[in-house]
Amino acid sequence: MAEQLICNQQVVGSSPTVGSIFVAWIRCTGVQTMAEKQRTKEFMSRLLVVDDDNDLVQLLAEVLTHENCVVDIAHNGMEALERMRMADYDAVICDLLMSHMDGAELHNEVAREFPYLAERFVFITGQMERCSRSSDFIMRSGNTLLIKPFEIGELRTALKEVLSR
Predict the structure, then answer these.
(1) What is the 3-state secondary structure (H, E, C) of the chain?
(2) Do residues 151 and 136 both lie within one domain?
(3) Pair 37, 51 in one domain
């Protein structure tokens, strides 16, 4: 959102023989133009963040909300499937290693139930060495993998690419 300077001049008590002129300049920040409001509506995406690390999902939800996204959270693959059955998502950010259903298992289920969404995953992991089969899976799925810790700019770039599919 672009910051704008809005100036409003207020003249109070102006008289050539008696009074003073008071001028007030009012600065407003965080004001959106009509074009910005329209652009915000156009680019709003609904994302599902799936990770068993509650601190990380809360942080990602906060960051992505500021990126004009609507964000839902699931803490494992089973919970993610339940959410996908109740809402439509534009993309999924998903950890590879989770209990109950890991990222690869979730992706396989999504490919069966929601095939349009299977190519719109951004996978994340902090334990690539424990995921020996993950590199093969990622290559087969055609999706992006980010290694934790990652920069928000990397996530932004990956999401932009996924959402353009």
Answers:
(1) CCCCCCCCCEEECCCCCCCCCEEECCCCCCCCCHHHHHHHHHHCEEEEEECCCHHHHHHHHHHHHHCCEEEEEECCHHHHHHHHHHCCCCEEEEECCCCCCCHHHHHHHHHHHCHHHCCCEEEEECCHHHCCCHHHHHHHHCCEEEECCCCHHHHHHHHHHHHCC
(2) yes
(3) no
